[in-house]
Amino acid sequence: MQTKKLEQLLNQWLSPEIISDYCPNGLQLDSEKTIEKVVTGVSATQALIDSAIALKADAILVHHGYFWKSEPAQIVGMKYQRLKKLIKNDISLFAYHLPLDVHPEFGNNVQLAKLFELEVIDPVEGIKPKGILMQAETKSATALADFASLVERKLARKPLVISGGDFLINKVAICTGGGQSFIEHALAAGVDLFITGEVSEQTVHVATEMGIHFIAAGHHATERYGIKALGEYLAANTDIQVEFVDIDNPA
User: Fold this and answer.
1) Torsion, CA 44, CA 47, CA 49, CA 51, rounded to 10
2) Distance (Å, whole) CA 68 – CA 74
3) Helix, strand, coil share of the chain (percent; to 5)
4) pLDDT at position 70, please?
5) What is the CATH number for 68?
6) Is the bond preceding residue 129 a cis peptide, omega within 30 degrees?
7) Could you tell me the pTM of the whole model?
8) 124 and 64 in one domain?
């Protein structure tokens, strides 16, 4: 499959044109190769590029790509070295940021909710883009300590846990990655627990003073599962071979 054809297919599944984002979604670096093997990963780091080269991949598909609105436009330093290796090895790069976070089937939020064995997974209404904040229910009322143990076991890392009081968890809101600013939207949705990847200083105060449990489980750790699911879907629906490579990141 050629790069443009693969981009058309991915765009058909993810609909990036309907979402305003901080970076270009879709094909970020072209290639003349026919794509037979794709490496997927969370971020297009040098380590992921090196892994793709070693695995003889024709393309890389990630959640965090390049050309963010807040970064310098010059192609120098780290950005130059990354692009140089991609071009030298004729490897194309595809990236989907918010479209992958919010997707109702293989989005980061939905996949994390399923990983935590939650049920009745739906977007919190009135928050744009739709699906950036999801809500779901536990199978039964669960103590915060027990839910935190589940998170640690599933993600293989110890999360930061803030108690909002002495109450059980029945309803959970999720926004993966750097979604801590959505805690007050989670409060308004009436959930017992809000899960995201990162934490800010004020997030702790909101949780303790407003009475909502909070878990920060890691930006990278909470966003492994959307890109993995997308890659699996790509492999199941095309002749392309797909391999997920997890470059560990403690943040």
Assistant:
1) -130
2) 12
3) 40, 25, 40
4) 87
5) 3.40.1390.30
6) yes
7) 0.96
8) no
CA distances from 215 to 108, 135, 157, 211 (A): 16, 14, 12, 13
Element (H, E) at 184: helix 183-188
Dihedral sign of CA atoms 114, 115, 118, 121 in order: negative
Residues 22 and 70 in one domain: yes
Kindly state the average pLDDT of the residues 164-187. Answer: 98
Considering only CA atoms, which of 224, 124, 237 is closest in space to residue 177? 224
What pLDDT score does 233 carry? 98
Element (H, E) at 136: strand 134-142
Joined tokens for residue 162: 């803030």
Same domain, 217 and 114: yes
pLDDT tens sequence across 141-156: 999 999 999 999 999 9
